[in-house]
From TrEMBL:
Keywords: Iron, Iron-sulfur, Metal-binding, S-adenosyl-L-methionine. The keyword NAD does not apply. Gene3D superfamilies: Aldolase class I. It comes from Ruminococcus albus 8. Residues 59-184 form the Radical SAM core domain. Binds 1 [4Fe-4S] cluster. The cluster is coordinated with 3 cysteines and an exchangeable S-adenosyl-L-methionine. This is Radical SAM domain protein.
Length: 301
């Protein structure tokens, strides 16, 4: 199937809405025929082997196949702030970030734009030499991930929920855990166990992110248990995040209207350690909205 055929009847994500994006139609994620981004710059707040000293060359794509009520980037995920780029301009954006010293090219919420990204990577060709990071909410089709075989070096997916009730209520996707687990296993199949260079930078592998939400520690514990049942400790890295800040629609949901407590976060940290996984724990000071980047409606670089 050609890239145009894919965009004519879009089934890139588990929603499989069938939108004819070439005819100007949009589905759940609001993505159109061209790639749309809201920011492309060096980003210093990813995990240490992603950001490194020079920063990760991060491209924030507009639109999302989830609608998380607590999304820090709701301006672009739901509000679709951003500007369109041709595939050629997207390729030049990747090369621009590499030219600024980026440790990698970090594609944030890229699922709706996989065909355009593949074209852009082909256009950039051998000029692009840094690793490609696929930074995902975890709600992915394995068929779409297969399209990225040999093109993506590092997968950085969320694994947000175990409970279908929570995922339906908080992100509008009752089948989230089922789809995210299949996707995570596929990601590992595509890139394998973590590989680092001599400077400690990740060159290949999977880092599974999990944000510990308030009043959800039992759900978080089930996620850690599932990871332990399905992956050996050396096969993946885990990044346990404490950065939750009540914002967007979560301010009106009682269970989400406070920050995650130290007890809740430390309970899951201890469980990850007992399971033997390597990874990253986040400083409690990261729970600040000041870490949300500025997004743009017009190309600014």
């Amino acid at each position: 199937m050609s890239m145009n055929d894919i965009l004519k009847c879009c089934t890139l994500c588990p929603r499989r809405c069938g939108a004819d994006r070439l005819a100007g139609k949009t589905g759940f994620c609001h993505a159109g025929a061209k790639a749309k981004i809201a920011r492309a710059d060096l980003h210093y707040w990813e995990e240490p082997p992603i950001s490194g000293k020079n920063g990760s060359g991060t491209v924030f794509f507009s639109g999302c196949n989830l609608q998380c009520c607590f999304c820090q980037n709701h301006e672009i995920s739901e509000g679709c702030k951003g500007f369109e780029l041709s595939d050629e301009e997207l390729a030049e954006t990747f090369l621009m970030l590499q030219g600024k010293g980026a440790e990698n090219i970090n594609l944030v919420t890229a699922a709706p734009y996989v065909p355009q990204i593949i074209n852009a990577l082909d256009i950039a060709g051998d000029r692009l030499t840094v690793p490609i990071v696929y930074n995902s909410g975890g709600y992915e089709n394995v068929e779409t991930l297969e399209m990225l075989r040999g093109r993506v070096d590092i997968f950085l997916p969320d694994l947000k929920y175990y409970s279908c009730k929570l995922s339906a209520e908080y992100s509008g996707a009752a089948d989230y855990f089922e789809q995210a687990c299949r996707a995570l296993i596929k990601m590992w199949e595509l890139v394998g166990a973590p590989q680092f260079d001599e400077n400690g930078m990740l060159k290949k592998g999977v880092i599974v992110r999990h944000l510990v939400l308030p009043n959800c520690r039992h759900d978080s514990a089930k996620i850690v248990g599932w990871l332990a049942d399905n992956f050996a400790p050396h096969e993946i890295l885990i990044s346990l995040m404490s950065q939750y800040v009540p914002m967007h629609k979560a301010l009106d949901i009682k269970a989400l209207s406070r920050r995650t407590s130290t007890f809740e976060y430390n309970t899951i940290c201890e469980m990850v350690e007992k399971c033997g996984f390597d990874g990253y724990f986040q400083q409690r000071a990261a729970a600040e909205d000041k870490y949300v980047p500025e997004f743009f409606d017009e190309k600014y670089y």
